[in-house]
Amino acid sequence: MKNYEFWFVVGSQFLYGPEVLETVEERAKEMAEKLSKALPYPLVYKVTAKTNKEITDIVKEANYDDNCCGIITWCHTFSPSKMWINGLAALQKPYCHFATQYNREIPNDEIDMDFMNLNQAAHGDREHGFIAARLRMPRKVIAGYWQDEKVHKKIADWMKAAVGVSVSKNMKVMRFGDNMREVAVTEGDKVEVQTKLGWQVNTWAVGDLVKEMNNVTEAEIDALVDIYKSNYDIATDNLEAIRYQAKEEIAMKKMMDSEGCMAFSNTFQDLYGMEQLPGLASQHLMAQGYGYGGEGDWKVSAMTAIMKAMGENGNGASAFMEDYTYHLAEGQEYSLGAHMLEVCPSLAADRPRIETHYLGIGMNEKDPARLVFEGKAGDAIVVSLVDMGGRLRLICQDIVCVKPIMPMPNLPVARVMWRAMPDLTTGVECWITAGGAHHTVLSYDVSAEQMKDWARMMDIEFVHITKDTSVDSLEKELFLNDLAWKLK
Ligand code: MN
C-alpha cells in the first residue's frame, strides 16, 4: 500500500475572535488524530481556514500532493462560503463534506450564546453545503457523530473509493496482443478512457514476452513454485506445466513492473511462441493485486486492479469474472460464473488446488496448470464498464453468492454460483437492457455505494441494478441518462 492520506480542512472565520479559533484548531487536531486510528488511511489536520487565500492555497497543495487522495471538510463554526468558491473551483481531488460536531449532546446547564457560537456546525455545514451544490461539485456528504462506528465505516468506505480514484488516475495497462477478433464489448475508446479515468492502455508484443520468458532462470522458477506449494495444494503429477506457468508469471511480472503497469490482458488467439495460455500465472498475479482481463479485455482488467486496491488492505476479494451458464430449475435459479482458467483465488471458499487439464480453445501445445476452487457464499456485486460511444457507463448489480449447489466434478476450472438481484430472469433482463458485458469484476469486498461514489468522482454514468429494480424503471432511467449525458 502506498502512503495514501486524506486532509482535514476546517472552515471558520475571524468573527469569533482568536480564542474560539484556537479551540476549533485544538479540537480539529484531536478529531483528526482519533479518527486516524479508526480509519483505514490517516486523516491529517491541515488548516482552520478563515480566508479565501487559505482555502485556495490548501487546495493547490492537495492537487499536487501524490499521497493526498482527497479532502474532508467540516465547519465547527460558521464559514461564509463565498470564500470557498475559488478553492473549490480549483479542486481536483475527491471531496467529502463531513457534517458532524465536536460535542455529542446539548449540555443543558452549560449552553448559552457563547456555547452556541462555538458549536454551530448545524449552521455552518448548511452554508458550506450550499456552495458545493451551487457549484455542482461532485462530493460525498456524510453526517453523524464523529466518534460513532457507523460514521467511521461510512468515511472508511468513501476513503477507499477515493483511493480507487488515485489508482485509476495512475493506472497503466499492459496489453499482450490485441482483443479477441470480432468481439464488440471488449472494445473501447482508449483516448476517452485516458481523458476520463486516467488509464494509459498500450500494447506489447507477445514475442517480447516470450523473449523475457526465455531469460527466466531455474532458480527463479524454484522460488515461485515454493510459493505456489505454500499457498495451494498440488493436485497433478505434471510438475512441468506448473513450472511453465511460473516462468510465464515471472516474465509477465518483470515486464509489468518495469513499465509500472498494475493490469494486463492477453488473448488465446495470440500466444505465438508460448506452450500454454497463462492460467495459474494470471491467477497468482491477480492474487498479488494485478488486474487481468481475458480476450484482450483491458477495461475489465483495469477495473479489477482498481477494485482490488479499493478493498481490504489495498488488495481485497475482487476478481475478473465471466457469466457462463444458468441453472433455471424453478426456485433454484442461479448463474454459474467462471473463466477458461483465470479466476482470482481471492474468491475461494477453501484452499485452491493446482490441476492440469486439456484446454481446447487457443493453441495450447500442452495442458495448462490452473487453480480450481469454489467461490465463497455471501453478498457481492458484479460490475461492468462499457463504452456507449461518447461516454462510459458503469453497470453494477447486487448478487448473492451461494455454495455451488452441485459439485460438477468434470468442470476443470474455478467456479462461483450466484443469484442476481432482483431475481435471475429480471436481473438478466436488466443487465442485458443496460448493455452489461459477459466479463465483470465480481467483488465481495467493494460495495455498490463505493462504486457509485467512484463513478461520481470519475464523472461517468452509473447504473445500479438492485432488489428493487424493474425492467420498466430501468428503461426509463437509461432513457433519461441518455438525454442527460448528451447535455453534459
Ligand atoms: Mn472471457
Question: What does this protein look like?
Answer:
- The protein folds into two domains: 165 residues, Rossmann fold (3-Layer(aba) Sandwich); 316 residues, no CATH class.
- Helix content is 39%, strand content 22%.
- α9 crosses α10 and α10 crosses α11.
- The longest helix is centred in the first third of the chain and has 21 residues.
- Bound molecules: manganese (II) ion.
List the helices and strands and how they pair.
Blueprint: E1 5-11, H1 18-38, E2 43-49, H2 52-64, E3 68-75, H3 85-90, E4 95-99, H4 113-118, H5 121-134, E5 140-143, H6 149-169, E6 172-176, H7 190-197, E7 200-204, H8 206-214, H9 218-231, E8 233-234, H10 239-259, E9 263-265, H11 280-287, E10 291-293, H12 298-309, E11 318-327, E12 334-338, E13 353-356, E14 369-372, E15 378-387, E16 392-402, E17 416-420, H13 424-434, E18 439-443, H14 448-458, E19 461-465, H15 471-487
Parallel strand pairs: 1-2, 1-3, 3-4, 4-5, 6-7, 6-9, 8-13, 9-10, 16-19
Antiparallel strand pairs: 11-12, 11-18, 12-17, 13-14, 15-16, 15-18, 16-17
Helix pairs in contact: 6-12, 6-14, 8-10, 9-10, 10-11, 13-15
Bound molecules: manganese (II) ion.
Give the mean pLDDT: 96
What binds here, in terms of ligands, is: manganese (II) ion
- Report the helical percentage: 25-40%
Cα distance spanning the termini? 35 Å
Short description:
This protein is of the alpha/beta class and 488 residues long.
List descriptors.
single chain, alpha/beta, 6-stranded antiparallel beta barrel, binds manganese (II) ion, 488 residues, 2 domains, Rossmann fold, 5-stranded parallel beta sheet
